[in-house]
Amino acid sequence: MNKIKVYKSMVMLLLTTCLGLNGFTQKSFEVKAKIRNADKYTYYLAYSVNGEFKIDTKPEIKNGWAIFKGTVDEPVLASFGLRGNPELLIKMGEGIIPGHGLNFFLTNEAFKIEGEANKVYASNVSGGLANKDWNRIKPKENKLIDESWIALKNAYKKIGKNNDSSYLESAYKLNEKNKNRIEQMHTDFMNKFPKSLLSMYFLSTKVNELSLDVLKTDFSRLGNKYKNTSFAKQIQEKIANMDATALGKYAIPFTKKDLNGNSISLESLKGKIVLLDFWGSWCVPCRQSFPYLKELYSKYKNDGFEILGIALEQGQTVEDSKAIWKKTVKEDDLPWLQVLNNEEKEVFDAVKSYGVTAFPTQILLDKEGKIIARYVGESGDLDELLKSVFKK
Questions:
Q1: What is the pLDDT of residues 193-225, one digit of tens each?
Q2: What is d(CA 113, CA 209) in angstroms, rounded to the nearest whole number?
Q3: Which of 314, 326, 321 is nearest to 2 (CA)?
Q4: Domain map (residue ranges) of the chain
Q5: Which SS3 state, helix, strand or coil, does residue 257 take?
Q6: Is the previous residue joined to 360 through a cis bond, with omega within 30 degrees of 0?
Q7: Residue 9 near residue 90, CB atoms below 8 Å
Q8: What average pLDDT does this structure show over 112-125?
Q9: Residue pair 385/273 in contact by the 8 Å Cβ criterion
Q10: SS3 call for 102
Q11: 52-56 and 42-49 strand pairing
Q12: CA atoms of 211 and 374, how far apart (whole Å)
């Protein structure tokens, strides 16, 4: 299963979020950082203001402190780090794997960051209520992050000397193990401090992993104080999308263009058993599933079975994505209906509206357009279900 959100091992995601804290009255922030052994490197502070991503690499240097100043309209999650430190990079061929930065919550107040250049991600942050909450568990988080990062660096060094990929497999397993441990810490924190803003943030990072019932239950337990934040809005949007496409619900109608530029509406397929197949040319499991889908299509198409492929491509432009999509459909000889989600995505985003967060995802509709099955990854019992539907 290939997740939409692309997972690069050991890289912390920078999530920009508005927190809406009470007492947000100071008109600007000041972040003072003192990092040992960082004289040769460039400091950076990355954050967003009104959806615009900013990276400040020109702090004032005064008495050994790097000082960033600015203003945010609301509290945001910021990333602080160093550029140019070879200890925070792993070279792999012509590319690199960047190391961790330090994530912390930025508000219009004063902050201090103190740490060491080779472990900037484990620096201490003082300032702000959300950071105070996070400091309850950050030392343990940082220990696991450090362990995983060192293992990955060592693995790549050993591969270079011995050309043995087993070292990398071991490092990835450790990373996955430690990632799960950190996620459990977040879950434990949510259970212990449900009214904390940090709990709302942690839940927002889990929306693509939890079932609808669990997400609803966890969200209902969190404090009302932060249910107007962007964290909460992200969770509520996910719940709404999952609710709208739950089993027994009518599929959300939409119209998109096929390979020849002709419009196809989902409504026009009523009266048939329809499989919505969410895929992409970049998704290896998606393309590996095509021979199986071809068997099913050949077996049931005369009984009223139809497949509507909904592709999400990664071209730099819609035209690039369209070219990739058409080429793949031709190469893989796909005989069923196809549309491209990238095209007129601003009008209707099928991937988002159907709550698709992993590829392939397949959704089976009955003749009335009701959702009767949903598969993520392998569509295990689809053949058996179709046998039952068509009474074969």
A1: 999 989 999 999 999 888 889 999 999 999 898
A2: 32
A3: 314
A4: 12-127, 201-244, 255-389
A5: strand
A6: yes
A7: no
A8: 96
A9: no
A10: strand
A11: antiparallel
A12: 12
* 12-127 fold: Immunoglobulin-like (2.60.40)
- Top CATH class, 255-389: alpha beta
Angstrom distance (rounded) from CA 56 to CA 318? 31
- Both tokens assigned to 230: 């962007």
Q: Is 144 left (phi over 0), alpha (psi -120 to 50) or beta?
A: alpha
| Other CB atoms within 10 A of residue 356 CB | 25
Structure tokens given for 183: 């996620």
**Distance between CA atoms of 9 and 293, rounded to whole angstroms?**
32
Is the preceding peptide bond at 59 cis, omega within 30 degrees of 0?
no
CB atoms within 10 A of CB 183: 14
Helices 197-204, 230-244: axis angle to 10 degrees equals: 40
How many angstroms separate the CA atoms of 271 and 251, rounded? 13
Question: Rounded to an integer, what distance in angstroms lies between the CA atom of residue 248 and that of residue 125?
Answer: 48
Q: What percent of the chain has pLDDT over 90?
A: 71
- Segment 183-201 shows an average pLDDT of 95
**Cβ-contact 372, 390 below 8 angstroms:** no
pLDDT tens digits, 53-67: 999 999 999 999 999
Element (H, E) at 294: helix 290-300
Helical (H) or strand (E) element with 177: helix 166-192
| Distant-in-sequence, close-in-space partners of 163: CB < 8 Å, separation ≥ 6 | none
- What does the DSSP 8-state code read for residue 135? T
Distances (CA, A) of 63 to 32, 35, 67, 112: 11, 12, 10, 14
Amino acid identity of residue 179, one-letter, is: K
CB 88 within 8 A of CB 82: yes
pTM for this one? Answer: 0.72
Q: What distance in Å separates the CA atoms of residue 154 and residue 363, rounded to the nearest whole number?
A: 43
Which helix H or strand E contains 69, and what residues bound it? Answer: strand 65-70
Partnered with residue 338 across adjacent β-strands are 309
